[in-house]
Amino acid sequence: NNFSHDCLQCHDQTKWSPATFDHNTTQFPLTGAHVNVACTNCHSSGYSNTAADCYSCHKSEYDQTNDPNHAAASFPTDCAQCHNTTNWGDANWDHDNQYFPINSGKHRGEWNTCADCHANTNDYGTFSCIDCHEHEKTRTDNQHIGEVRNYTYDSAACYNCHPQGKADN
Predict the structure, then answer these.
(1) 102-125 residues labelled b (16+ CB within 10 A) or e (exposed)
(2) Does residue 141 lie within any of the structural domains?
(3) In a domain, 32, yes or no
(4) Number of domains composing the chain
(5) Whether 62 contacts 70, CB under 8 Å
(6) DSSP 8-state code for residue 131
C-alpha cells in the first residue's frame, strides 16, 4: 500500500490517531473543496505516486461539461487555469481583456451562455454578431456601403473593425 515504514512520519509517539501528516508539505497542498475530501478519494491505491494534476480526478467533469464543451474546444486539462478549488462552477475566464468585451459596455447582460454567441460549441473561435444584430442590417449597410472598402455584413468583418464592440472602433 506504499506506506512508509517510518511511523513517525505521520504519527507521534503519544497517540496513534489521528495521523499528523501535513499535506501542505507535498506537491499538492489541500485548498478549498479539497480540504474536506476523504483521503481515500485520491489515495485509493496507497499514498505514493498519487497524481497531482486536476484531470486525473476530474476527467469525467471535464468530459461532461458542455457549456462550453471543454473537450471539443480543446480547453487545457489544467483546471486551475480557469477555475479555483473554492468555487468550481464559476470560471475566472477574462473574456473582456483576452478577447471581446461581453461583461462590460453594451454587451453586458445581453447573453446567458457561451452558446449565445458561439453557436458551434466545437469551435469557440467562431462566433456570431449577426444572430443578435440581424435586425440592424439595413441601417448598418447604409452606414458602411461606399464608406468601408470591401464591406460585408458578417461577423468576422464586424469584429475586424470593431474588436471592442463599439461603433467608433
Answers:
(1) beeeebeeeeeebeebbeebeebe
(2) yes
(3) yes
(4) 3
(5) yes
(6) H
CA distance 156 to 163: 10
pTM above 0.70, yes or no: no
Give me the amino acid identity at 52.
Answer: A
Q: From the first residue on, what is the mean pLDDT of each consecutive set of 10 residues in the chain (169 residues)? A: 70 73 84 87 80 89 85 84 80 80 88 84 81 86 93 90 82
Residues 46 and 69 in one domain: no
Set of cell numbers at residue 41: 478519494
Residue 69, SS3? Answer: strand
Closest CA to 42 of 32, 52, 27: 52
pLDDT at 147: 92
Q: Which set of grid coordinates corresponds to residue 113? A: 451562455
Domain, as residue range, for 154: 96-161
Residues 81 and 106 in one domain: no
Neighbours of 83 (CB within 10 A): 19
The reply to whether 88 and 106 lie within a common domain is no
- 168 within domain boundaries: no
